[in-house]
Amino acid sequence: MPLLKRKQNKRERGTVSMSYRVGAFVRVSTDRVQQLTSLKTQVRMFEDFVENKPDWEIQKIYQETESGTKYNKAMKELLQDIENHAIDIILFKDISRLARNCEIAHKVMNRSIEKGIQIVTIDNTVNTLEGKRKSFGFEANRAQDASEETSEKIKNAYQTRMKMGIYMSSTPPFGYRLENQKLFVKNDFSTEVVKRIFDDYLNGKSPAGIAKELTSESVPTPAQVNNRSNATMEWKDTTVRGILKNKHYMGVQIQGQTTSISITTKKRRQVPESEQFIKENAHEAIISKEVFAKVQERMKKRKRNTTPPRKRMFSRIAKCADCGGAMWYRENRKGYVCGTYSKRGREYCSSHKVKEEELVAAIKAHFHTYTSALDKITIKKNLIVKVQSASSQTEKDIHKMKEKIEVIQKRMVKFATLLADGVLDSVTFQAANAKAKEEVSALEEELERLENCQTEHKIDLHDIKEDFIGFLFSGANATDIVHRIVDEVVVKEDGTPVIHFRFSEPEQNKAS
What we know:
The chain is 50% helix and 15% strand. By secondary structure, it is α/β, with parallel strands linked by helices. The strands form seven sheets. Strands 4-3-5-6 form a four-stranded parallel sheet, sandwiched between helices.
């Protein structure tokens, strides 16, 4: 964003020379040549506009070639300058050039008001210097409506072409080439790689195993084939899974699987299959429908047989000292192993195995050693106060629950009396009594839960007083405490942990 030279002609305020610092915001939606020409035109328009105002100086021009529906670089810079009061006036061609997102537009307006910064548009629909700001909300809404309407028209045009079977993506699936917006099987190695992936999977190999073999053989990845800037030579198991699930390989063209939620966000939502654009036999298949169906069935079976991963105490903070990868918990080892070793084998890293109880013991010992006596007393007192407070609240809840049960039970006695006196008929009595019993049953369940909680509070208080450090590192408390005090645990090849605490510890006493 270029800073412009300050003008010499300034207005006089007493004996002090003053001028308004103007920040001009120019925007077009793309960086195409025609749009960039529009940027230059807007800049020239601002310069001409300010030239007629001797006490205004364009101090900064915010230029953006992105959508006005999201927070872009220039908008973030403008908001920061408003916060720092680096400008006095914000100048726009019109409100649509500020933003086509009401939230962003109002954020600029509100922050400007807070900081005493003026907003002026060249079309004069908004000019806070002259008190013109009533139409701001209307203009911002109109700009967003126009943007949404344009977006909807583009979406409808895309959907019409999808219905016609035209392939709208610019990137074809691995193994295909794109010609005149149609898919054709490539006459190169990629087609055979796709067939191999499906065959290997049906022969019992895992996606991770297939990816490992392809990487070791230096087979170009889909990202490399498509010349992506972030392409790597390493095949990922997720890439292999994506190929195994892609229906394009059996000649079925599927488009419109996701759609944008709103012009104001990049997030997308999944579209139900019934609303997607599916065309059978749209192009030549690489994989038969029978093979594809077998693969999907096997993937479902494997998914059913897979135990979902559980969150463990050190899942996010334990790292391998050699490869830097995350340590993975393994139930059969009751501890952690290097994730790279587990996923890719000993050629890439060794196990670095360490038991969870060993890590807890090491942290517990270091915490005990490096926490001062005063800190221990403070922590202990805080824990006792916390548990006592919870216990007091639970006791109040128990009392309220008993009162509610007593009220309903008295009501049930009254129902019986009214029935005996002939005030209530049998049907009404049974309905009222049944409802009251349901309420009492639910309240008694809640009462039992509260009484169990109260028992746990008493046990916790006893444990804290007897061995509060032991209490800290036991049960549900342990994970919370570990994540509060430990920044990272680096595990060496022999399983020795190097613990990095969030607090400072004496240099000579650090774990090694």
